[in-house]
Amino acid sequence: MEISRNWRLRYQRYKLEGTKCMDCGNVSFPPRRVCPKCGSENYATKALMPTGEVYSYTLVTSPPEYFESQAPYPVAMVKLDDGPLVSTQLTDVNYDAIRIGMRVEMVTRKLRAYGKNGLIIYGYKFRPEEAKDGN
Amino acid sequence: MKVRNAFVKGYGVAIPRYRIKDEAIAKNWGSSRGPIEEKAVAGLDEDSTTIAIEASRNALRRAGIDGEKIEVVFFGSESKVYAVKPTATIIAEAIGATPQVSAADFEFACKAGTEAMKCCTAYVSSELADYALAVGADTAQGRPGDELEYTAASGGAAYIFSREPENAIASVDEMYSFTTDTPDFWRRPEQKYPMHGFRFTGEPAYFKHVTMAAIEIMNSMGASPKDFNHVVFHQPNVKFPQNVAEDLGFTKEQIGYGLLSGRIGNTYSGATPVGLANILDHAKPGEKILAVSFGSGAGSDAIAFTVMDGVEKKRDLAPSVESYIARKVYIDYATYLRFRGKIDMGD
Asked: Could you confirm whether B120 is annotated as catalytic?
């Protein structure tokens, strides 16, 4: 059930916690101990802005184990406002309504459950920025 | 009891986007219509935890504080996702309140949310904490074909309390609870659906407890119904709160903003807190609010508030109750069964 691995990932899954290079300013998500841009090991953790836009997307119809009950579901690359691209599920949206460039916001949702006896894993998904204006 | 030095600093709600009309449920069971118009239904990736986290983040936005300042997280629900493992720790972690935080889950049927609010008020008023977060959220289940299926809904609200009157949304003025051992509704361990006493849930349970809590808090304050601008009662349907309001002498205008069950259903631990949030979305500074919850088993919490100046600049910092109600997508009964895990997948 990978308890320890899921536990270690909780900050990035709950809070979009990434890293910011203290030398060149590059922001990484998932967090990186070595800056992929300048090689510096001088970094700070940072909860990224929970907003961005759809960079690309598709529909998963043949899901991996533990995701069967949710299929079909959309997944996307979301370009965060802080810079990094993050792969994520989209939620609270009809597939036909998704557009490249669509503004999205992070929500914490159930990613999967390890059967009826196992852990329930929560983490980020993104949905259209609609709740704010009531659309 | 009179409350000193406790203020609502933030509030927030979360209501899933999916709706099923009562007539779609009724049609399946050969009935003409149900007791409400439509109810909110959690999607496949939503549960009481995710609703609680979203409501808490909205409350933090209005409070204007970082999650790390929250020293208490109490979560009230009857649809916890684990029988053993606190949801409050997940909420606390998600909002960044860990590790210096007191956290626990409360269960008292539909009034665990207001009980959490009372305890958080006590924490800040007694100076045991500076900021305390109370959440009431549920994804309530009703047995297919049972009366509860028409109303058991999903949603929740979160409240942040502190001793700071500056920029406060409301003051907490008075609290009172009326509790007896009255078995009108229950769910045994490992049972998926609750049992209830049908008409027994009315007079000896809902009406007695709500009425007594409302009368006693008004007696304690030397107040009468006309002293309040707004009142919210627990709302298992539309008729019960309307009837109890009329019996107590409250007008339709006073219950207007707080009565949402016709449009979103009974959100159980979220019901009174969400109704209160809609009042705060509309109320003016200086107005008086009375909130009276009900939890089967049975008890009622009555809490009196006075709206403060902060409400006007705080309310737009997070989505309103009406905006959550408006962003709705209708589903049919088959989709509802799938979303609520009522289809036997053989696992």
From this structure: no
pLDDT value of residue A23: 97
Whether residue A134 lies inside any domain: the answer is no
Q: Is B165 left (phi over 0), alpha (psi -120 to 50) or beta?
A: alpha
Tens place of pLDDT per residue across chain A (135 aa): 689 999 999 999 999 999 999 999 999 999 999 999 999 999 999 999 999 999 999 999 999 988 988 999 999 999 999 999 999 999 999 999 999 999 999 999 999 999 889 999 999 999 999 645 433
Token pair in block for residue A85: 């691209």
To the query of whether residue B38 is one of the catalytic residues in this protein, the response is no
Q: Are B56 and B62 in contact (CB under 8 A)?
A: no
Give which of A56, A42, A17 is closest to B94, Cα–Cα.
A17
- Return the domain boundaries, chain B: 7-168+328-339, 170-311
- Establish whether B282 is a catalytic residue: no
Alpha helices in chain A (DSSP H): 3-8, 10-15
Share of chain B above pLDDT 90, in %: 95
What six digits make up the tokens of B66? 């970082």
Are the beta carbons of A69 and B345 separated by less than 8 Å?
yes
- What does the pLDDT look like over B60-98, one tens digit per residue? 999 999 999 999 999 999 999 999 999 999 999 999 999
Query: What is B170-311's CATH topology?
Result: Peroxisomal Thiolase; Chain A, domain 1 (3.40.47)
- How confident is the model at residue A134, as a pLDDT? 39
Of B78, B115, B149, B287, which residue is the catalytic one? B78
CB of A6 within 8 Å of any CB in chain B? no
B7-168+328-339: CATH homologous superfamily?
Answer: Thiolase/Chalcone synthase (3.40.47.10)
Asked whether the predicted pLDDT for residue B106 surpasses 60, the reply is: yes
- From the list B45, B96, B345, which residue is nearest A110 (CB)? B45
The residues that bridge with B124 in the sheet, in sequence order, are none
Question: Quick check: B327 and A108 CB within 8 A?
Answer: no
B94: chain A residues, CB-CB within 8 Å: 14-15, 108, 122
Range of the domain at A83: 3-128
Chain B residue with minimum CA distance to A108? B50
